[in-house]
Amino acid sequence: MGAVAKKELRQYFHSPVAYVCIGVLMALFGFFYTQVFLSGSSSNISYVYSNMFVWCMLVIPILTMRTLSEERRSKTDQALLTAPVSTIGIVGGKFIGSFCVYAVAMTLSLIPSVVLTFVGKPNWGMIFGDYLGALFFGMAMTAIGIFVSSLTENPIVAAIGSLGISIFLMVIDSIATAVNNAVLSKIVSWISFSTRYKQFTSGIFDIPAVVFFVSITAAMLFLTSRRLESRRWN
Amino acid sequence: MIEVSHLTKRYGPNTALVDVSFSVEGSGVVGFLGPNGAGKSTTMNIITGYLSATSGTVNVEGHDILDDADAAKKSIGYLPELPPLYMDMTVEEYLGFMYDLKKVKKSKKEHIGQICRRTGIDHVYTRLIGNLSKGYRQRVGLAQALLGDPPVLILDEPTVGLDPKQIIEIRNLIKTLGKTHTVILSSHILQEIEVTCGRIIIINNGRVVADGTQEELAKTVEQPRLLVEIEGPKEKVAGTLKALPHVGSGELMAEAEPGVWEFSLDEKADARREVFQMCKDNDWTLLSMSGRHNTLEDIFLRLTSGTVDDRMASDQGHDKKDTRKVIASAVGLTKPQTDDELSREPKAEAEKSPETDAQASVKEEN
């Protein structure tokens, strides 16, 4: 698992992918931070993160699109699958690699808040809630992206597929309000990422939400490893 | 040690492998030969655990490739048809990654350095794989297979894309490796198999059609024949030749020069001395005598695509065959033969798979 993760990270940072993704996220963070600072309210940093939720959900599919599809296309998966590593190990390594790039971006996003401590008193409890929440939903979305990437040989198809899923997960709230059926709307809001994330942005460390995101991640990684296994049979 | 038993692989309605069994013990190079789409790569992919068979088992060094996958995979070095290289990595990074991936427990720098020298890639060590020529990429792929010094090496067409000098180097390397490793080598190049492999497995339409040393295979395909050119009276020479105790049957091939007759003899035992003695006694001139041994090419063509004679007949048209028949029966050398007998259906033809369309339907694994 370690070898694959190391390789993934090296590939991300040897190509422009990681820099572009992190750079775009940083620029957007900068924009929303500026808005908050101009309004003169350092306590409203959650505004930054709740806006960034959308952008993060859109950038992650770009990070994960080539993880497994590219290996399949260039036949390098032969090296991985014939090495003494389990498919869980391969998928785990891929996940750690992609997630680390995202985590680096999120960690860098804390810089403006750190700077803020010299001139004001930001609410660090809330900021950490935002940060952790962003890591948790990012984790789940990364796992989903890797799973979609394992379904195809074409990175573009993988990107569009997981973008579709991520957009669906974002707009699902408006569907929930539109549906009349109480049970259905409950189910829909249950899988909503933004509802879960909102708990974090209001400074609450929501255990059910953590369990939810971690479960999604585990389930997706498991499905991906089964998917790699199943390829051997056809 | 590799033990492959009763492998069958189906892709949907298509069958790629049918009951393939063989086992390789001890060190040595085994050649894996077959036409395109015969199932060579599929078999290799199954042995290395990249694909799974529909039924059948693979055991490598005592470890089942499915039940004890990690141990089995650890003892295999695999160079697939297309080397699994990351174009955006340098050779150094790539081999370092593969070293970690294979969990090799040797001194990293020393081990990789040694393999690079063996495969001749030490001077491109710091270059990007994407910028290397095909020959070098192939060698990096081979280096990757050698990492961890696995006892079993599976090499799928290792010399593709190399220049003649590199081919010789890699062949020599494979031969050297064969002294200490079990090597399975697939190739289209018959000459390569001929010079590197002690044992040959021929696969066609997903079935093993022959397995043995080249000499053994040659015998199963056809008895060795003796070709002689004798100057003398045609009927008398033919009659005397046929009467020789070690000659089974003979055939007049052609009139090589005016008054010189070329015969092809089926030998029961070594008949060379008898033929010479016969010419001496009768005062005929023996102009040439040569043994006709089956080359690997003959064997391969016979086992995989009908018969050599069929091909020759279709190349040369039927005229020559008819002439041969007429001359042969005219001189009374052979019993009157039917056309079928002359073109000699080999044994392999009878064993040929009933599903002749299997080859066409064999799907490459992708």
Morphology call of chain A = globular
Strand content of chain B: 25-35%
Structural class determined from secondary elements of chain B: alpha/beta
Of all protein chain pairs, which has the greatest interface, and how many residues does each chain bring to it? A-B, 25 and 31 residues
As residue ranges, the low-confidence spans of chain B are 306-366
- Main sheet of chain A? none
Estimate the strand proportion of chain A.
Answer: under 5%
Radius of gyration of chain B: 26 Å
Question: What features would you describe in this structure?
Answer:
The complex is a heterodimer of chains A (234) and B (366). With 234 residues, chain A is mainly α. Chain A has one domain. Chain A is built from 12 helices and no strands. The two termini of chain A are 25 Å apart. The model of chain A has no long low-confidence stretch (mean pLDDT 90). Helix content of chain B is 40%, strand content 26%. Chain B has 2 domains: 2-213, P-loop containing nucleotide triphosphate hydrolases (Rossmann fold); 223-293 and 308-344, 2-Layer Sandwich (Alpha-Beta Plaits), CATH 3.30.70. In chain B, helix 4 packs across helix 5 and helix 8 (214-221) crosses helix 11. In chain B, strand 1 and strand 2 form a beta hairpin. Chain B is built from 16 helices and 14 strands. Classes of the chains: A mainly alpha (234), B alpha/beta (366). At the A-B interface, helix 1 and helix 5 of A face helix 2 and helix 3 of B.
